[in-house]
From TrEMBL, chains A, B:
PANTHER family cross-referenced by the UniProt entry: HTH-TYPE TRANSCRIPTIONAL REGULATOR RUTR, TRANSCRIPTIONAL REGULATORY PROTEIN
Keyword field: DNA-binding
Protein known as: TetR family transcriptional regulator
DNA-binding region: 35-54
SUPFAM superfamilies xref list: Homeodomain-like, Tetracyclin repressor-like, C-terminal domain
Span of domain HTH tetR-type: 12-72
Amino acid sequence: MVKRSGRRPGNQDTKASILEAARRAFAEKGFDQSSIRAIAGDAGVDPALVHHYFGTKEKLFLAAMNAPINPGELIPQALSGPREQAGERLVRMALTVWDSPAGSAAVAMFRSAMSNEWTARLLREFVVTQILRRAVASLVLDPAEAPLRTSLVATQIAGMMIGRYVLRIEPMASADREVLVAAIAPNVQRFLDDPMPEVFSSYNGGRAPGAAGAPDPAGR
Amino acid sequence: MVKRSGRRPGNQDTKASILEAARRAFAEKGFDQSSIRAIAGDAGVDPALVHHYFGTKEKLFLAAMNAPINPGELIPQALSGPREQAGERLVRMALTVWDSPAGSAAVAMFRSAMSNEWTARLLREFVVTQILRRAVASLVLDPAEAPLRTSLVATQIAGMMIGRYVLRIEPMASADREVLVAAIAPNVQRFLDDPMPEVFSSYNGGRAPGAAGAPDPAGR
């Protein structure tokens, strides 16, 4: 990360201004609608300098979030392999990362991101664009059901992390990792595999799974 | 910390001092180890005044947490009825409360409680003593397994709330309540009913479920 030489790349004030502008942009407009050009303009620097310091927009986002890990590397890794063990691999990966030294930084990031509406929006962008979107891409899921399925998985994994690492509720907090994998992974797997409830198709605009775009008689 | 003299009931400064002392005590010593007497002493008031303003220790705790609802009333209500629908009733109750006007206050409470270690400890006490303990008491669960089962349920419900109300991840955020009940309740029910994983008995000191105290051959 730390780069020396040329253009005073160590200028911490400039970097801080860029990160601040990035946070503002990502929170206000979301990850997709934010551009490095606009962020650079807001920070009063040349876009090339943003690229030079941070690389891609995605890496800038991770830096703006103080993200201790890069889900772009971890998620595809956890999701490659037999589909029927995806739940197990996801839960074990989440616990392994948070049990590691990076975990306390992750707790800190999570806490600060939850603290108000503005930073919560950043966290939502992080979860959606960096985690869920990749998970959808890595898993074979019906496109009409994929967003609900992956967000259900996210609720279980986020809840597990909060219970174990943030609130530290016993026996979650000190349970052996494999106990939690064994207890939680089957439920994560069911969110991926179980048939969607009957009521889902009416929620989903009356579209039959897999038939995205069919007209909705209820007009919702 | 501002102390005024004379008990002038309704004195907001006095009430605030008591609540501040209560938060400190509950966070430092936990709910069980905190006494109204000690809290009154810390606030420089007579214990009778604490009872006068707030009633029981439990009600003082709810007031100190700015809790918008009283889980002591809701949990037993959600858990009475057929055991095989306990998961469904829990999920629907949680969504109903958070969808109600009290919900935004609950989001605010949750956010502020997550914000640092000190207030997170208060939230843990709240979850453990006001929610999980009641849930254990209302459900017929093997005592050796009850704490893990109820904390697993708590992770799923907490994660659902964070996804829907705090981070507002779509489609969780705007999904019809009954879609979420139908999708999530079966997993909550499984946390209550499914056999504990094999690995649990070694975690649990080698005790077979229901046979608390049996020796553990692995010696863990």
